[in-house]
Amino acid sequence: MNQIVRIFVLGLWGMTLHAQDAAYDLLKSDSQTHVLIDRVWCSSKINKQTPSLLDASLFRQIYSEMQRADFDQRLPDLSVWETPKAMGIAQHEIPLAVLVTDFESIPQSQLASLQKNNLGQWLAKGNSQYLQQHHFAGVAPIIGTSRTNTVTFTLPENLVFSTAKTLASLSLTFENGTAFSLQKGQKLPITFPRSGQHTVDVQLHFTDGSQSQSRFSLITEGQVYGKNNGFTVVPNVVNTLNSTLTYQGFGESAPFAGRGEYELFLDTTNGVLDKPIILVDGFDPGDSRNTAAIYNQLTYGVGQNMADDLRALGFDVIVLNFPNYVRPNSTTTVDGGVDFIQRNAFVLVELLQQINAQKVGNEQNVVIGPSMGGLISRYALRYMEMNSLHHDTRLYISFDSPHLGANVPIGFQHLFNYMAFGPLGDTSMQAIVNGMLKSPAARQMLIDHLEGHLQAGSAFEFMTATNALLPTGAPNYRDAFQNELNTMGFPTTVRNVAIANGAGNGTMTGTPDMVVMDHTFNQSSSQRAIINLRFTPAAGQTNQVSRFRGQTFILFGWVTLLESLANCRYPATTAGLDSAPGGRFDMSGLATGAPGNTLITEFMDNLEIQFFDFIPTLSALAVSNPNWYSSITTNSVTPFVNYHVPTVNENHVTLTTTNQLFAYNEIVQGQLGLNPLAIEQLQVKKPMGSQLELYAPNEVTASTLQLTDMTGKIIWTSSLPSFTGLVTVPMDLSVGAYLLTLSNESGKKTFKLMKS
């Protein structure tokens, strides 16, 4: 979602209100280059200024605009990129693309030199020197990120495009000053000394002896991949995993096996794989998170990480990621982070079987699934039970997972889709929308989906009839998946617990029908776009959730040349989802992706609210109720035997000091075995102050108390006689985290304490 809004505002900045149709055909004879950029929506702003630094996304947009602006159609469409991209992913290579072209634009000062005939076509009044000529020569990778610091650059013959000069070779100069030549068809392996963003200077050499300069950026992530060694789990490297089970999703011609990658972080006590905790990645378009980033999702407080805490107790953390890969026996890329939930679940099935075959001892697994990872985990565990496959798992933790569906405001969906597939035709937006809204996983999870509202035969206009305004999922995806999930139910041989980030007391995120944006983006003295967005309405009401108007100033007033809108209706049983209690999507971080961008700042400054409900609380706890605003009470029916729900709406998959303690205690208690009722009900005040406070509603027999720090060092021990009710023990401790273990003849229980 961050990327969607970022691309949206960047596209808006370059908006020009000229239609891509026959209106410019009569100007072809006046053009020397036969590439007139005004024929398309110039989101790249290439007609204003040549960018000093290219990346994969910007280069793709420039190429698309040049391809569509060319009267002679000399450049192939973007589909020609797909095979080299697939081969690059499959072979861990980064293909470079080259575009060399001359093109023209119509400066605003020269518009007076044109007039329209009775067919609406532009023609010159007499002076044919109204066109401004430009030159572009650029090089960029078609894959913007490398998982490893060792990169093999390639220059495929079919990615060298030119409407002007003929390329002879490239010279690449890297940050350390080393330079290498790259010919068409060659490969160039390079090892970067660090992870992060890199810039590469490029000199283009042409057959006529001339040269041009370009510059591109690339991100490397520094992962280290293990060798293909069968079923041996290797720590400290990323291991590739192929599922044995295959899956055929809707619209696919045949079933195929999914692919995953995982990294093993052994405990910091004995370094033996004997207490596995599997952390399963969630919804991740474009595979933007590697295994290290997924591990860091367990960070809480100030510099603390629950995975680190658990490893100090002897647990081993295994992070499962779903990468981009090439479908077997094809050149079709699969975005694993948003693939069908069932296929990714089968990858987890494979991982569980491999871990079970190699772990030492009898300790059962713990599976943690943040966000969509919770659905993948649920499906995999239950599938194994239904098919007599032993998952050897004792605990399943669902972390703000959409068991009854997820929500992205339908007004946002309409606006972003219109920007991508309407007259603007922004290719960067198309790629983002295809991943975040039109991917298999998004179609399976979103309760209200844009494809359920499209007019017949249109890729972007919504229906307006009253009976077409109620929330509806993506046809052939949403209902089919939810019905399958409901039929399967939850794992039956494990302890199912949940963390919700949404409030349990009915607290809302904003209010139904509230204005989210009502703003005019002034592009120039003669062009502007007016954006109106609202949250979905109150129960039983209908409202307009999105409206886009593109206007130009003609003579003495503004004229709307582009307009699209979407309406929404909700049943009498509930108000709209956008403001319901739930794990929030936080839009305040959007500007961090483009610091200093004034348009993003303008967009953020004019949002009336920074959040929307992403994972409804009822969905996170799988509580069926026709009213999404219902509170969680003791009468709420949930399949989870224990859960943590806050009293305020928190950001989606946010670990707090309270919910991480809930998860921590669930994991540690299960490892210690069953406890009598009295010990199970024992409560400890957290965080602690100058004394330790214990409360037992039922009698706890004489016990031994032991306090250790997070390294396992014993700080304090004491004996405690039998007690009921509140007991206080004075204790002077330094600020930090500690483990308190109470044990007696009946068993023992461990708590994690924080001294503030």
Report the sheet-strand fraction.
25-35%
Which shape, going by the Cα principal axes?
Answer: globular
Biggest sheet strand order reads 13-14-18-15-21-22-23-30
Figure out the total of helices.
15
Helix proportion range: 10-25%
Radius of gyration: 29 Å
Q: What is the typical, i.e. mean, pLDDT?
A: 88
- What is the total domain count? 4
Number of strands: 37
**Main sheet attributes: strand count, strand direction, barrel closure:** 8 strands, mixed
Flag low-confidence runs: 13-20, 592-596, 672-676
- Separation of termini? 36 Å
Estimated structural class: alpha+beta
Structure report:
- The chain contains 15 helices and 37 strands.
- The two termini are 36 Å apart.
- An eight-stranded mixed beta sheet has the order 13-14-18-15-21-22-23-30, sandwiched between helices. Strands 1, 4, 6, 7 and 10 form a five-stranded mixed beta sheet that branches. Strands 5-12-11-8-9 form a five-stranded mixed beta sheet, with no helix packed on it.
- It is of the alpha+beta class.
- The chain folds into four domains: 219 residues, no CATH class; 163 residues, Rossmann fold, CATH 3.40.50.1820; 187 residues, no CATH class; 82 residues, Immunoglobulin-like (Sandwich).
- The longest helix is centred in the middle third of the chain and has 18 residues.
